Amino acid sequence: MAFTLHPFSDIPTEDWMSLLNHPDVIRHMPLADRHWTRDAAADWAKGKDAQWLERGYGPWSIRVDGQFAGWGGFQREGDEADLALVLLPAYWGHGAEMFRGFMNRRAELGIGAVSILLPPSRSRTRGLARLGFAPDGELTYEGQRFLKFRALG
Questions:
Q1: Which of 54, 59, 67, 80 suits 7 as a labelling partner, its CA being 20 to 30 A distant?
Q2: Which pLDDT belongs to residue 30?
Q3: What's the pLDDT score for residue 91?
């Protein structure tokens, strides 16, 4: 599997809508409480790309072997970067490799502390320890509870 990273604007809005409205994906996204329209998905993607201009880092869209797979990367969360990864179900087995790739880029982006926020529905979290993350409590974001993990070192 070869994955490549791209600006969000490189992905057609229809592909974003397929990801953002996929029932297996939104089941683990408690903040996604609506059906994404074409305009809403396009605005959301523009906002993700804008993070690069605002902060010097941000998330990427991801292609696997040339096919759209989802998105991931770093977003500002308080005083640290939050590492997010949202993939279409066909690519769920490739997350660890992508996480490692993101973490390998963190120094070149000037990112120090990194956290991951997961909803409680993501009950399989032991693999995060192999990726260098440890539990770091819980927090509530926009009325939803999340489990927080922090990168070790």
A1: 80
A2: 64
A3: 94
Residue 70 and residue 29: Cα distance in Å, rounded? 14
Burial class (CB in 10 A: 0-12, 13-18, 19+), 150: middle
Residue type, 44: W
> Are 152 and 134 contacting, i.e. CB atoms less than 8 angstroms apart?
yes
**Single pTM value for the model:** 0.89
The 3-class secondary structure across 7-40, one letter per residue, is CHHHCCHHHHHHHHCCHHHHCCCCCCCCCCCHHH
Task: Look at residue 79 in the predicted model and tell me its pLDDT.
Answer: 80
Residues of the chain with pLDDT under 70: 28, 30-33, 123, 152-153
DSSP 3-state percent helix, strand, coil across the chain (nearest 5) = 35, 35, 30
Residue 148 burial (10 A CB sphere; 0-12, 13-18, 19+): middle
Report the candidate in 96, 127, 101, 132 with the shortest Cα–Cα distance to residue 115: 132
Which element (helix H / strand E) includes 130? helix 127-130
